[in-house]
Amino acid sequence: MMCNRGFSLIEILISLLVLSGAIATMFSGFDTSSQLNLHSAFESEAAFIAEREIELLKADLLSMQRKPGPAAAPSRFRNRPGVKVNTAWTSRDPEGTVRMVCTVSQSDRVFKIESFLYLPQEPGS
Predict the structure, then answer these.
(1) First and final CA of the chain: distance in angstroms?
(2) What is the pLDDT of residues 32-66, one digit of tens each?
(3) How many domains does the chain have?
(4) pTM of this prediction?
(5) Which of 13, 20, 86, 103 is most enclosed, with most CB atoms within 10 A?
(6) Rg (CA), the chain
(7) Separation CA 112–CA 87 (nearest Å)
(8) Which residue range forms the structural domain that includes residue 22?
(9) Is there a domain that residue 68 lies in?
């Protein structure tokens, strides 16, 4: 009696096909993970930059170094190459609120943060 010990060519090819599919899926996950990591790094840096610009603008508006808008200004700081920062603000609305928007962009990514500041009316105005 002859005993069949070993794998046939078909079994080996099927196992290689399954293994290659698993490896391709794993590398696809690595690529997605890398893209998400780059996006989150941009969001973190952009949030820091935008919040810094908004806080500086609030301080300038409260100390009357800048007047309520409408106006816009570029960043006061040197940023990494390719990063563009623009801050815009509106004039005081009837309730005394100034709307401020800071936009940070880098290539095809854009991050925007918005804030409001209550500026009481000046006496005699």
Answers:
(1) 110
(2) 888 889 889 999 999 999 999 999 999 988 888 88
(3) 1
(4) 0.71
(5) 103
(6) 28
(7) 10
(8) 9-118
(9) yes
